[in-house]
Specification:
The chain is mostly helical. It has one domain. The chain contains nine helices and no strands. Helix 1 packs antiparallel against helix 2 and helix 5 packs across helix 7. The longest helix is centred in the middle third of the chain and has 18 residues. It is globular, with a radius of gyration of 15 Å. It comes from Bacillus bruguierae. This is Imm30 family immunity protein.
Length: 161
């Protein structure tokens, strides 16, 4: 099924600044995508993130939707799609790209599939993910250094340059 129209609506109302930009409509579309869309929509969902939005909970719902879609349709492939979509988030959604990676670092069940996913992405995207992980690690080493290093050392993204 093609979800271009729904994704276009999400993209249009993501700032929640105009009359008719409704968080309930936003959630309704994400709910529909959660239950019906495949992993191929994940890079498009990454385009919706913005650091300067009026309703930050909207992007929290997008993160939940991405992980739900991935878990429902094949976690490793979903994480490949997510990693590929990270480049779509920068620079306008750096905060959210970091947040997604912090979520990954907090989840024992996502680390190994994410390592496998990172082995399947292009060099440019590997460099972006490497930079994000290194940034998170440097900001809070006591919380993230061990897991970030584990991902960096096992996913061959340290070899990028």
């Amino acid at each position: 099924m093609n979800y271009k129209e729904e994704l276009a609506i999400l993209y249009k109302i993501r700032f929640m600044e105009n009359e008719g930009d409704d968080i309930e409509k936003f959630e309704e579309i994400l709910n529909d995508l959660s239950f019906h869309a495949g992993n191929e929509v994940i890079p498009e969902l990454c385009k919706i993130f913005e650091d300067e939005i009026a309703e930050p909970s909207a992007d929290d719902y997008v993160i939940e939707t991405i992980f739900y879609i991935a878990s429902r349709n094949g976690l490793e492939d979903g994480l490949v799609q997510l990693a590929s979509g990270i480049a779509n988030m920068l620079p306008q959604a750096e905060f959210w790209a970091d947040g997604i990676h912090r979520t990954l670092l907090h989840s024992e069940e996502l680390i190994f599939p994410y390592i496998k996913a990172l082995q399947q992405i292009d060099k440019h995207t590997k460099q972006i993910v490497r930079d994000i992980l290194c940034n998170i690690k440097s900001e809070m080493p006591e919380l993230y250094a061990e897991k970030a290093d584990f991902i960096l050392n096992h996913s061959v993204i340290n070899e990028v340059n």
